[in-house]
Specification:
Largest sheet: 7 strands, mixed
Helix content: 25-40%
CATH class of the largest domain: Alpha Beta
Distance between the termini: 23 Å
Radius of gyration: 18 Å
Shape: globular
CATH architecture of the largest domain: 3-Layer(aba) Sandwich
Number of helices: 8
Strand order of the largest sheet: 4-3-2-1-9-10-11
CATH superfamily of the largest domain: HAD superfamily/HAD-like
CATH topology of the largest domain: Rossmann fold
Length: about 260
């Protein structure tokens, strides 16, 4: 079984500053136990860069898929930020040769940057494979940010993915999390994949028509929807309310394979 999970909002709480995000207690221990078990493979998937992801959530034996699946780091014990940087650099060089790499993202970021003065309180986050305008501190600009981002995406060949108080833009020709996860499952020859995620980019996994992939959406329950989902539509089959519930689920998974449960924090 391949157990794959997003990071922000899934293993870590959503925080005002992305650089302050850390795994909730028990998350790394549960993933480490799964990665060490013979019946499981573990992958951590994120829009963050490989080096950032490895440094923020080191899990011996885990696969790392950074840049929304466009950067892949095989397991290491322990995972190395230096190796993550080298691997990411090779991935980006190959993408630049195809014409769909991070240089396109950097150019788009420079187009977006002057607009921030029109939306006081917003800020720009530039990742290797995406650029996002955060409006968490200034929610009054949501409509304006999303409208401008949608127009710019259409003009420049990007894809707009609205997230948790962020308008994120990804190259339309780049891989997404769903493509990356299917590729990894095939590479590892896993019979089943379980994926935990909380945001719009995770819908690329949940929306796959694949009966060997189980999607689990993570987010707070909404009283407006009686089935317990939050206020964003999702194609996931299951729901958990928080990163803490994700950890509890991860700790129980070994029992599915007849192995001892993961250690409690």
């Amino acid at each position: 079984m391949l157990v794959a999970t997003d990071f922000d909002g899934t293993l870590a709480e959503i925080v005002p500053e992305p650089d302050a995000a850390t795994p909730v207690p028990g998350a790394q221990a549960a993933l480490t136990a799964l990665a060490a078990a013979a019946s499981f493979e573990v992958a951590i998937v994120s829009g963050r860069s490989l080096a950032d992801l490895v440094a923020r959530c080191p899990v011996p034996g885990a696969w790392y898929l950074g840049g929304h699946g466009n950067e892949i780091l095989p397991p290491a014990r322990p995972p190395s930020a230096q190796e993550a940087d080298l691997t990411a650099a090779r991935n980006r060089e190959a993408a630049e040769r195809r014409g769909d790499g991070p240089q396109r993202v950097a150019r788009l970021a420079e187009e977006l940057r002057p607009m921030l003065a029109r939306w006081p309180g917003t800020w720009l986050e530039v990742k290797p494979w995406s650029v996002g305008v955060h409006y968490r501190r200034a929610p009054q600009w949501e409509s304006a940010v999303l409208a401008y981002a949608a127009d710019l995406a259409g003009q420049r060949g990007f894809r707009l993915v609205p997230g948790n108080c962020i308008a994120e833009l990804l190259p339309s020709t780049a891989d997404n999390k769903g493509q990356a996860l299917l590729g990894l499952r095939a590479r590892l020859r896993c019979d089943l994949a379980v994926y935990f995620g909380d945001e719009a980019t995770d819908e690329d996994v949940f929306a796959l028509a694949d009966d060997r992939l189980v999607g689990v959406h993570v987010g707070p329950p909404s009283p407006a929807q009686r089935d317990g989902w939050d206020d964003r539509p999702t194609a996931a089959a299951f729901w958990l309310a928080s990163p803490q519930e994700v950890v509890a689920c991860l700790q129980c998974l070994p029992a599915c394979a007849g192995q001892p449960a993961a250690p409690q924090p």
